[in-house]
Task: structure prediction
Amino acid sequence: MPNVTDIKTGLSAEAARQRQQSEGWNELPSSRPRSVLGIAWAVVREPMLILLIACSSIYLLLGSREDAFILLGSVFVVMGLNLVQEHKSERTLEALRDLSSPRALVLRDGQRQRVAGREVVRGDIIFLAEGDRVPADAILFDSQSMSVDESLLSGESVPVRKHASSVTAAEMADAVGNPGGDDLPFLFSGTLVVQGKGQAQVVAIAEQTVLGRIGRALFATKEEPGRVQQETAHAVKVVAWASISVVVFLAVWYAVTRGSWLNGLLAGLTLAMALLPAELPLILTIFLGMGAWRIAKKRVLTRRLSAIEMLGAATVLCVDKTGTLTQNRMALAQIMVDGAVHVFQDAASEKPENFSETFHETLEFAMLASHRDPFDPMEKSIQQTGGSALANTEHIHHGWTLVEEYPLSAELLAMSRVWQSPNRAQFVIAAKGAPEAVIDLCHLNAERVADISAQVDQLAQQGLRVLAVARASFQPPDLPAIQHDFEFRFLGLIGLADPLRPSVHDAVGQCQAAGIRIIMITGDYPATALSIARQSGLQAADAVITGGELDAMDDIELQQRLLHVNIFCRVMPQQKLRLVAALKYAGEIVAMTGDGVNDAAALKAAHIGIAMGGRGTDVARESAALVLLDDDFSSIVAAVRLGRRIFDNIRKAVVFVVAAHIPIAGMSLLPVMLGWPLILLPIHIVFFELMIDPTCSVAFEAEAEESNVMQRPPRSSTARIFERRILMNGVRQGMVLLALLLALHQLAQYAGFDTEQSRAIVFTAMIVGDIGLIFINRSWTQPLRSALVLPNPALWGIVTGALVILFLSLFVPALRTLFHFGALSSGQVVLTALAVAATLGVLSSLRLFR
Result:
């Protein structure tokens, strides 16, 4: 990549056009969404839809058009539900593309031109000033006091100084991938100039930039479906294949014993629908969708539904310090003058009466050494704090005029600003900068230097960014050429920090009480990270691994160290990915929070990526599964609580579904085997599958969490929805209800009811039995009498709706004919319902049954 651009004239328009044609635009490709036809094809292949279509076709052959049209209608209902849920495409890289394409000021044909960032090409000369976003990776060859915020890539909240250099493009290529660090000439796409100005030559665009490499990693990282989704899909497939042999056997049995192959096939397909738990995927969608709605009320946006239930199993939460635990802004934390310390509780609203005169001069001259309307976050904090703490005092410098500025340089890491008093009688010089530089300016003796150095160490050990402040006076007319020619007097030290979010300590405590391990992964320095870790209450906040140490470890050593270390510092984006992968390999369920572009790939790779919505970048939000809209870390606790509640309630719904399917399957199979008239027809099966069972299952979604939900450890990473004890609970309940239905059918036959009347009685008992199963499974820790009064407004609406449907199907002649029911009196219906309710009520007291 030769460096051939003339820095005085820049590229020609023709050369820029040719490079655009050969190398492409300065933007990143976006992912391709799944087509509607692809989604529709996946839906049509679902086993339940195939069965419904087959049954409706047979009804058409038998001449029963009403039954056929009802079944076909249910096909379109199911397809519509699935299409709505599935038609969501990912736009992860769109935000990256927008971020990497700001407006840029370039030099073309000797003239400065403002062009779209996507039109910048390799070799362009770009001009940058305070507030500009860097459009591409570049080498700085001319600069004035330039500082750049690279937190988006490095994770460091403090801007880094930039120093012009004449390095070659090849040297730039070697340095790419290591943002952060002061006095380097390298600029990186997407970062923000917070101070000064400069000129640079572009050496990498689009996917060749550091930002682009993150985008490629993000594009290559595949999302993993949720475990519950995988398990549910597997269960449905297993049951579907296992039922084939039973269905074939039943169809042949019916045809041989009764002489009708077409009706035998219909009976077999009816049994297949009864056996297939097709409502499980729908239940899962409803539970997770409603969970997303509930958590949205707590200011958490759900971008991928599977993340909600996964949170309930999360064992590790990887936390990005900057912008997650902290507020991603520099705030004045302490002032130290001759060993005396003032600690700011709320620097932005410090009261003058609470601020001692001892510290007035140090704060005043820190303000004078800063811009009046700064862009730099440290200077902004100094001005805000000073404006509040020194309000209505003589230390506010109204009417003073700035006449000269001595900028920060690589040789002297301090800056001085010269102010003239309103009467123009004298100059006052304010200096601030690195403590060693200001000490040098003040020409202090060894004893005084040792004393100040000890104070600097005291502040630095607290994770503070320390600056020293000094003052000097000068008489007109001629100012010296360098800062060293002033006679400075040392005033004091100021310590700045990226403050902890107020809710973090409590949220971390709740997570740890719930058995969730917190791991901090940051690009910042170890001292700062350790300080924040201690403030937030992280466990084992005394051991740390740096990015350099991480690179030196092999995978085996990393697995061993991961057992005992919770703080990782100076970590680069690819290292975050490695840590997430190592934790996943160790069997952990990994959640990760973050807000910067540097977090995006790891957010997507984690089981649950959680982005900050307020201060976070669009890239992080698009990559994450959850977004905290108000950046409140405590919202994670609410999300974990909800995730655990959802998993518990899904299990309750699974028990109900299993229990409800057994009597449906039994009443489809046994009449054929025993030579009875068919009791349940396809229309009844579809009715239970698409209306009664899913609707009743929704009642469990609204159930509140158990009282100990946040005091128990995360469920095992191998825990399954369909565990043996869960399934057996449903089997026992279903067998009891099946036995009850068979008994009622036989009593009806014994009492002289015809087939259609017996069918109506069985149908009534099944609906009442389903309602009873809901109450039995509302809580597995409380008795039935308590479950009857637990708050759940949705439940009573569902119960009422189910009873209304039952009433209409029994007593409206047209519907009764459609359902092939015989007429029953209201007394017979009430007696049937009471018999079922009483039997289930008595049996629910048995622990084996519950």
Q: What stands out?
A: Residues 635-674 form the longest helix (40 residues).
